[in-house]
Amino acid sequence: MERPVRFWVPSIATSGLMVYTGDKFPMWRNNIIVGSLAGEQLARLQMTEDFRSVVVEETLTYGMGRLRDVRQGPDGYIYVAVSDRGGAPTQIVRLEPVE
Fold first, then answer.
1. Does the residue 1 lie in any domain?
2. 18: how many CB neighbours lie within 10 A of its CB?
3. Around Cβ 80, how many Cβ atoms within 10 Å?
4. Separation CA 38–CA 26 (nearest Å)
5. Per residue in 34-57, pLDDT tens?
6. 0.85 cut: is pTM over it?
7. Cβ 83 vs Cβ 93: under 8 Å
8. What is the pLDDT of residue 39?
9. Is residue 73 part of a domain?
10. Which residues contact 26 (CB under 8 A, 6 or more apart)?
């Protein structure tokens, strides 16, 4: 058992962690993208090559709602399942790069 490389206090209730390998966000290749239920945020962690430490942490979105899952589609875009605390149906949001 090893200690985690990164954790949040208070907990953001992580959900839907992925390592990005697509081509739509080339600067994010091999970065960890993690969703959050309680924190209602999407975070990007740039790691060292061996994934043993965080180089950069960035909040990509905040306040969209509870992020249930985050996945990379076969098209290279990042998809996020978002719901609110009021019980509205979950929506799928596609992240697209901005020039």
1. no
2. 16
3. 22
4. 29
5. 999 988 999 999 999 888 889 998
6. yes
7. no
8. 86
9. yes
10. none
Token pair 């060292």: residue: 48
> What is the span of the domain harbouring residue 66?
14-95
Q: Which two tokens stand for residue 64?
A: 């969209």
- Tell me, yes or no, whether 56 lies in a domain: yes
Identify whether the C-beta of residue 69 lies closer than 8 Å to the C-beta of residue 89.
no
Residue 3 lies in a domain: no
Q: Which long-range contacts (CB under 8 A, 24 or more apart) does 68-73 make?
A: 68/15, 68/16, 68/35, 68/37, 69/15, 69/16, 69/35, 70/15, 70/16, 70/17, 70/18, 70/33, 70/34, 70/35, 70/42, 71/16, 71/18, 72/18, 72/20, 72/21, 72/22, 73/22
